[in-house]
Amino acid sequence: MYRKQAERRLKENTAQIVAVNKELESFSYSVSHDLRAPLRAIDGFSRALLEEHSKHLDPEGQRLLGMIRTGTNQMGRLIDDLLVFSRISRKVLEKSNVEMTGMARSVMYELLQLEPDRFVAVTINHLAAAQGDRAMIRQAFTNLISNALKFTRHQPKPAVEIGWYRDGNEDIYYVKDNGVGFDMRYVNRLFGIFQRLHRAEEFEGTGAGLAIVQHIIHRHGGRIWAEGKVNEGATLYFALPRGREKI
User: Fold this and answer.
1) Structural domain boundaries enclosing 84
2) Going by fewer Cβ within 10 Å, which terminus of the chain is more open, N or C?
3) How would you label 38-62 residue by residue, b for 16+ Cβ within 10 Å and e otherwise?
4) 131 and 236: one domain?
5) More reliable by pLDDT, 135 or 77
């Protein structure tokens, strides 16, 4: 009797999950189509006014149109991040052996190429291989390293370290920087979708990056946390269940 009840509950829960995933898919479609069209129109018209009719506008009018364009571009990035967050929920994990050291180096190289005139002291230690979805883990590394580079931008001697250690049945990876850091009283806000601890005027971004990383790590059965001090840098950790290291 108990087995049948458990099977029935499992079927009900599975049906609910399928229904939620369909709702997410429908929502993503609406976001990508229904919201993008008016955003493109606003951005296009405001750009046309600035390019073709700027001589009829005073400096204040030009400034306001510039703010409109900035706002629409920011909204576009928010939509992109929301879609990424939604896709992670629906994507089937394709697990394989992931060589984490090489991946971290590759991501770091690609991100530093975007700022060729900037020098950052980078240390990438040996990282144990992991069992996971290669594309998702690369996205997690990209978001974490991008954050570290962003928040060290005003540091005269920026430094980023990527490392790993083993603790029981977990492989723990970390990205450490010597940037602006944060107040530990607000650590829980770091991983909230579209939550920000720093003003947009200081550092660009939508506030979705760490929420996406958390979602990826949770889907792998892992956990994520952070430590930091104001003006003394931050360290982001994520732990994955130990897999058989082949590399």
Assistant:
1) 2-90
2) N
3) eeeeebeebeebbeeeeeeeeeeee
4) yes
5) 135
Q: What is the CATH number of the domain that holds 72?
A: 1.10.287
Maximum Cα–Cα distance for the chain, whole Å? Answer: 80
102: its two tokens = 């090489």
What CATH code is carried by the domain that includes residue 118?
3.30.565.10
Token pair of 116 as six digits: 């060729």
Q: What is the pLDDT of residue 203?
A: 47
pLDDT at 15 over 70: no
Residue 189 confidence (pLDDT): 78
Bridge partner list, 131: 97
| Single residue among 60, 90, 120 that ends a domain in this structure | 90
- Whole-prediction pTM value? 0.70
Least confident of 77-81, 108-112, 113-117, 209-213: 77-81
> What is d(CA 112, CA 26) in angstroms, rounded to the nearest whole number?
37
DSSP SS3 for 126: coil
Enter the tokens of residue 67: 């703010």
Which one, of 224, 226, 225, lies nearest residue 240 by Cα?
Answer: 224
Residue ranges in the chain assigned as alpha helix (H): 2-30, 36-52, 59-90, 100-113, 134-151, 209-219
Among 146, 161, 162, which Cα is nearest to 100's? Answer: 162
Structural domain total, the chain: 2
The reply to whether 209 and 103 lie within a common domain is yes
Query: CB of 97 within 8 A of CB of 129?
Result: yes
Q: Are residues 153 and 49 both part of a single domain?
A: no
Pair (24, 52) in one structural domain: yes
In whole angstroms, what is the distance from residue 74 CA to residue 43 CA?
Answer: 11
